[in-house]
Design goal:
- The structure is a single chain.
- The chain has 3 domains: 121 residues, Acyl-CoA dehydrogenase/oxidase, N-terminal domain (Butyryl-Coa Dehydrogenase, subunit A, domain 1, Orthogonal Bundle); 104 residues, Butyryl-CoA Dehydrogenase, subunit A, domain 2; 145 residues, Butyryl-CoA Dehydrogenase, subunit A, domain 3, CATH 1.20.140.10.
- Helix content is 52%, strand content 16%.
- The chain has 13 helices and 12 strands.
- The chain has a 4-stranded mixed beta sheet. Strands 4-5-9-8 form a 4-stranded antiparallel beta sheet, covered by helices on one side. It has a two-stranded antiparallel sheet with strand order 1-2.
- Helix 9 packs antiparallel against helix 10, helix 9 packs parallel to helix 11 and helix 10 runs antiparallel to helix 11.
- The longest helix is centred in the middle third of the chain and has 35 residues.
- It starts with a helix and ends in a 6-residue tail after the last helix.
- Bound molecules: 3-thiaglutaryl-CoA and flavin-adenine dinucleotide (FAD).
- Flavin-adenine dinucleotide binds next to strand 3, strand 5, helix 12 and helix 13.
Length: 394
């Protein structure tokens, strides 16, 4: 007779999710999952505990794997579908949000900004090396006093002869202190513009932000621009106004729509296995109705989130995805992922707070994911504006 464990199916199996993916998408997902299992997962507890990440080494391996800028065309990028990129993000975040962040910021923010708004020379100089993971990029939009409202930014770029001179401070910048190149957004006389700032430029520094209780396996930094002088060729010529950086955010937010579900899936799998194994009051915790209700509710939210992610992926692949729709996915899937992580934590009891299990690490990471790339309040307001036509940000 089969045991309870051999009869059980995962939430996504129950939804028949694999049947919605192409063979190529399944192959890409499986490759990234295997990479994470072999190369990342065994070290995560230690990296998280110590608050470190061997980012440079990992970036090269991720480059070889082909996930850096994988959905972009040309310049050494694989040009996969958006859905395949989403599935890769899901597997990376099932390992840790910090690993997905490394990939998101590199591919969807820094490379995307150069790909969409850069000159041919900027693309040739940076994109092939960034796709290979030989150069790391960061994306500096947020400032200490302007996060949700980047339109209020104080960083300036002023013309001085043929040069640009940048002054200001960016805050909470992923990959900042390990980056070879920073894409920095600054106010100019003609509106917001992006600049390609090579690390090592005099006046540029990127002190790391320490004592984080979330995204500990990820490098987060301040960017200080103290009269940084750049040639005129450093400006991204094709992007003007706030819509240029906000357009890049759509790409990274799309990855998070899938990614957050990876963290949720990992929590649910860990909690289910734990509940089947753990005996309370002389029988398996998984056999109690209260536990099954928790598992069933979480499976439903995970599956519904996945259907939403795939729907948005298909819309993006057909060129029909609107930024408002990305907000639907980011708001729902991160909110549900964090609920799932917290509920799974209860199933693990005291073990739930230990790094021996991935659940609390994911729950802690998801606090950042809830805030970055547009807070849940910002995405709520974007959806509110789409529904009513009335902006309520100010
Ligand atoms: P608003 O007047 O609405 O817009 C200014 C211009 O931008 C256009 N636009 C967009 N374009 C493309 N995609 C979008 N999502 C866009 N949203 C707006 C808009 O059409 C307009 O264009 P134009 O031509 O008319 O000038 O701007 P607002 O100042 O009222 O702000 C709106 C708001 C609040 C939604 C926006 O500022 C916002 O999204 N704030 C959140 C900021 C944010 O998400 N920051 C993330 C920083 S990067 C990060 O967190 C990386 S985390 C690491 C990781 O990803 O792993
Ligand atoms: P605030 O904007 O000060 O918001 C504080 C609170 O006020 C939030 O709850 C918010 O939702 C709420 N609020 C704001 N406006 C409104 C409103 N109109 N109505 C109602 N409530 C409102 N940024 C980058 O540019 N690049 C990066 O690589 C990057 N990486 C990050 C990595 C990590 C680990 C973290 C934590 C952040 C990162 N960020 C990055 C910054 C991130 O994008 C911002 O933290 C985020 O946009 C929110 O800005 P804030 O922290 O200044 O919060």
């Amino acid at each position: 007779m089969a045991t309870a464990a051999t009869q059980s199916r995962t939430a996504l199996e129950l939804f028949g999710m694999d049947g919605l993916l192409s063979e190529e998408e399944r192959a890409i997902q499986e490759t990234v999952r295997r990479f994470c299992d072999d190369r990342v997962r065994p070290h995560l507890a230690e990296w998280f505990d110590k608050g470190t990440l061997p980012a440079r080494e990992l970036a090269r391996e991720l480059g070889k794997l082909g996930v850096l800028g994988m959905h972009l065309e040309g310049y050494g990028c694989a040009g996969t579908s958006a859905t395949a990129y989403g599935l890769a993000c899901l597997e990376l975040e099932a390992a840790d949000s910090g690993i997905r962040s490394l990939v998101s910021v590199q591919g969807s923010l820094a490379m995307q900004a150069i790909r969409a708004h850069g000159s041919d020379e900027q693309k040739e100089e940076w994109l092939p090396r960034m796709a290979a993971g030989e150069a790391i990029g960061c994306f500096g939009l947020t400032e200490p006093d302007h996060g949700s409202n980047p339109g209020g930014m104080r960083t300036t770029a002023r013309r001085d002869g043929g040069d640009w001179v940048l002054n200001g401070t960016k805050m909470w910048i992923t990959n900042g202190s390990i980056a070879d190149v920073a894409v920095v957004w600054a106010r100019t006389e003609e509106g917001v513009r992006g600049f390609v700032v090579p690390a090592g430029t005099p006046g540029f520094s990127a002190p790391e932000i320490k004592q984080k209780l979330s995204l500990r396996a990820s490098v987060t930094s301040e960017l200080v621009l103290d009269s940084v002088r750049l040639p005129s060729s450093a400006m991204l010529p094709e992007g003007i106004g706030l819509r240029a950086p906000l357009g890049c955010l759509n790409e990274a937010r799309f990855g998070i729509v899938f990614g957050a579900l990876g963290a949720a899936r990992d929590c649910l799998e860990a909690a289910t296995a734990y509940a089947i194994d753990r005996e309370v009051f002389d029988r398996p915790l998984a056999g109690f109705q209260l536990t099954q209700q928790k598992l069933a509710d979480m499976a439903l939210e995970l599956g519904k989130g996945m259907l939403l992610a795939l729907h948005l992926g298909r819309l993006k692949d057909s060129g029909d995805l609107h930024p408002d729709q990305v907000s639907l996915g980011k708001l729902n899937n991160v909110r549900e992922a964090i609920r799932i992580a917290r509920e799974c934590r209860t199933i693990l009891g005291a073990n739930g707070i230990s790094l021996e299990y991935p659940v609390m690490r994911h729950a802690g990471n998801l606090e950042s994911v809830l805030t970055y790339e547009g807070t849940s309040e910002v995405h709520t307001l974007i959806i509110g504006q789409a529904l009513t036509g009335l902006p309520a940000f100010r």
